[in-house]
Amino acid sequence: MISLGRRSVALLAAASLLLGGCASEDGGDTGKAASKTIEWWHIQNIEPMLPVWQALATEYQKAHPGITIKVTPLENEAYKAKLTTLTQSGSIPDIFNTWGGGVLQQQIEAGLAKDITADIAPWADTLTPASVQPYQFDGKTYAVPFDVGMVGFWYNKALFAKAGVSEPPTTWTGFLDTVKKLKAAGITPIALGGKDKWPGHYYWAYLAMRVAGLPALKQAGADATFTAPEFVQAGERLKELVDLDPFQKGFLGAGYGTPDGQAALMGSGKAAMELMGQWAPTVQRDSSGTPDGIGDDLAFFPFPAVEGGKGDATDAFGGGGGFAVGKDAPPEAIDFLKFISNLDNQRRAVATGAFLPVVKGAEDAIKDAKLASVSEALGKAAGFQLYLDQAYAPAVGQQVNDSVAELIAGTLGAKEVTEAITETAKNE
Amino acid sequence: MSAPKGVSELSVPADERPKDAAASRAATKEEGTPDRRRRRGWVTITLFLLPAMVLFFLLVLVPIAIAIYTSLFKWNGLGGPPTNFLGLDNFVRLFEDKIFLGDLQRGLILIGLSLVIQLPLALAIAMLLNQRMRGRALYRVVFFVPYVLSEVITGVLFTMVFSPTRGLANQVLDLVGLGNLATTWLADPSMVLYSLFLVMTWKYFGFHMILYLAGRQGIPRELTEAAEIDGAGGWKAFWYITLPLLGPTIRISVFLAVIGAVQLFDLVWVLTEGGPIHGSETMAVTMFQQGFKRYQVGYANAISVAMFLISLVFALGYQRYVLRRDTEGAITVMRDQR
C-alpha cells in the first residue's frame, strides 16, 4: 500500500517541531551588579524614541570608558511579563521602566527598587513636581521621570463638522449630545479597544474623578472601599453613554493598537473620538499605516465636567514613564539617568514628539500643536490622578479594568462594579 | 516491507529493529558471568538514564513541588520566598471563583465539541484521503500544515480573518450570499467560544487526521478484502472492520484532544486574551491573569495545581480503564500475529 510514508510523517513532525519552536521565548537574562555593566530595560521599542535612547547610551559609553550599557528594548506587555518573571527570582535590571503607583510600591516593599532621594537631590529641582509625583512614597523618590502626560479626548474635526458640531463639548450632557449628533450623521462616535480593557477604564476613572473628586478616590484606595454613592453615580453616567451604543461594531473584540483596533480607526478617519493619552497621535499613525494619520484634523479636548460633581473640571488623569533603579545597580546608573535628564537631552527626546517634557524649560521643544494643547491642559490642572490600574495594587487595578469592561459590555450594573472592586481591594 | 501495525510502532522504524536485535546478540556474546552481566547492565542503564532523570527532576518534579508549596500562600511573587501561609484557602477560593467555575464549564464544552465534531471530521477526511485519488499526498500535506504553524501565528492570522469590518470570514459569507450570517465572531461573548472552537478545529484536525491515516494503514488489506468478498462493502466495511480496528488510535487521539483542551492557552491568549467578558477564558488564561496581571502568584499556582490534578486524574483514569484494553488486547494480539 502506498502511503504518505513514515519518513514523510517524521519529516512533517520534525518540521512542526522546528516551526513550533519559533514561538517559544528565550530565557530571561538576569540583571546583576558589581561589574561596570548597566542593564537597562525600556519600553520605547519603536520609532521615534528607540534610536534616541540608543544614541544616548552610546554617547554615555564614549564619554565614560569602561562602562557598558546593555540596552533591552521591550514591547509594553512583553516587558511586564518578562520583568515579573525576573523579579520572582529576586533580581531586577539596574535601570527599568516604571509607571509608579501600586506595582512600584510592591517592588519597593520587596526591596527590589532603590531609594534614590539623596542621589538625585543635587538636580531633583530641575524636574517638574507633577512628573515625579507617581514615584514618590512617604517623601522618598524611587524613579526619575522621562515622560508625563494626560488622557483626554482626541477628536476628528472634519467628522465633528460633518455632524454639525462646531465646538468640542465641555459638559457631560453636551458630550452625550455630541455623541447623538455624530450617530445621527452616520458616523461612529467613539473608537474603543475592548479586548485590552485598560482603554475602557479611562471613562469610569474620569467620571469618578469628576463626580467624587480626587480626595475620594485616594481615600477609597486607602480604605479599600469603593461603594460610596458617588462611585455608583460614575458608573451610571458611563451607562448613559454605553446606552447610546457609541462604539464601533465589534469593539469588545478590538485591540487598542492592532490593525483594525481603536487607534487604527481614528488614524483612518473611521471614528470621531477616542479617549486616550498623549501618545495617541503616534499610535494612530503607526497602526493605521498612514503617513500622518488624519493630520491636522486631529485635535484634543479635556474630559468634560460633570454637572453637580465634586471634582474640579481641570483635574487631569494620566501618568508618565520613569526609570527606577534596581537594588544592586552601580552608582553610574544614577549618573546615566542624570545624563539623559539634562536639558539638552530632554529637548532631544521632546522634539521627537513622543514625550512631553519633565524637565523645566524644555517646553519650547514641543513642535507639535496637538501635544502643546495637551501640555497646556496639564499645566492648568489643579490636581493629578495616576491611571487607576497603576495607582492601586495590581489586583485592584485589574479588577477596575475587568469590572468596567463588563459594565461597558452590559453584563454588570453600576453598583455591582463598585462591589466587585471593593471585594478585591478587601482581599489585598 | 510489511505495513505498520499501529501508531505505537511509528516511532520505531521497522528497518532498524533487526539491527538492534543483532547488536544485543553480539553484546550477549561478549559478556562474562551472569552476575557481572547484570551489574554492567545496571551501570549502563543508570548512565544512560541519568541525564534525562536529572533534567526531569529539575525541570518537572521540582517546579511541581514549588507550585504546590506556593499555592498554600498568599504571595505576590516579589522579593524572596512566601511567608503568608493560608493553608487551603486558595483552593476554597477556587470553588467560589465564578471565573474559574466558568473555565471548567467552557473546558467541558470545548472537549464535548472536539469529540463530537473535530475528531469525527478528522476521521472522515482521513478515510477520504486513504482512497486512491489524484494529488492525495498534496492534500495530506495541506491538511496537516495548520498543525505545523505555531499557535501564535494561528492566533494572529485568525484575529485578521475574524475582524468584524475587514475580516475574510465575513467577506466570504457576503460573497456566497450568506451575508446575513456575518457576525462579530470574537467580539460577541456568546459567540466567541464557538469561534475559538472553529480555530482549534482548523489547527488540530490535521494532527488527528494523520493519526487516523497511520492507523488505517495498519489495518491489513486482507481483512477489508475478505469483508468485500463476504458482501460487506463501503459503509458496512467501515463500520464493522475499519472502525473497531482503529480503536486504539481513536482512544489515543481522544486522550490527546482532552488533555489539549484542558491546557489550552497560547491560542486563546493571542486571539482574545480570554475575553470578551471571560467568554473564551480557559483555566490557563485565568492562571496567567492572576499571576502576571494581578501579581497573585499564590492563587495562580493554586489554579495550576488544580489543572495538574485534573490532568493527572484524567490521564491515570483513562490509562487504567480505557487504554488498558489496548495494551492487553489489540497490541498483544498483534504481537501474537507477528
TrEMBL record, chain A:
Q: Does the keyword Magnesium apply?
A: no
Q: Please give the Pfam families that the UniProt record associates with this protein.
A: SBP_bac_1 (PF01547)
Q: Which Gene3D superfamilies match?
A: Periplasmic binding protein-like II (3.40.190.10)
| SUPFAM superfamilies with a match to the protein in the record | Periplasmic binding protein-like II (SSF53850)
Work out whether the entry's keyword set contains Transferase.
no
Keywords recorded for this protein, A-Z: Signal
Q: Which residues form a coiled coil?
A: none
Extent of the signal sequence: 1-25
Q: Which InterPro entries match?
A: Bact_solute-bd_prot1, SBP
* PANTHER family, per database record: ARABINOSE-BINDING PROTEIN-RELATED (PTHR43649), BLR3389 PROTEIN (PTHR43649:SF14)
* Protein name, per record: Raffinose/stachyose/melibiose transport system substrate-binding protein
Biological source species: Streptosporangium subroseum
Automatic annotation (TrEMBL), chain B:
Q: Which GO terms describe its biological process?
A: transmembrane transport
Q: Which residues form a coiled coil?
A: none
Q: Where are the transmembrane segments?
A: 45-69, 108-129, 141-162, 191-214, 297-318
Give positions of region: Disordered: 1-35
Key words, A-Z: Cell membrane, Membrane, Transmembrane, Transmembrane helix, Transport
Give the species this sequence originates from: Streptosporangium subroseum
Basic and acidic residues bias (residue ranges): 14-35
Output the InterPro entries linked to this UniProt entry.
Answer: ABC_transporter_permease, MetI-like, MetI-like_sf
Q: Classify the protein's membrane topology as the record does.
A: Multi-pass membrane protein
Q: Which domain of life is it from?
A: Bacteria
The answer, when asked if Transport is one of the entry's keywords, is yes
Question: Under what name is this protein listed?
Answer: Raffinose/stachyose/melibiose transport system permease protein
Record family assignment: Belongs to the binding-protein-dependent transport system permease family.
Subcellular localization is given as:
Cell membrane
Q: Could you state one GO cellular component term attached to this entry?
A: plasma membrane
Q: Which residues form the ABC transmembrane type-1 domain?
A: 104-318
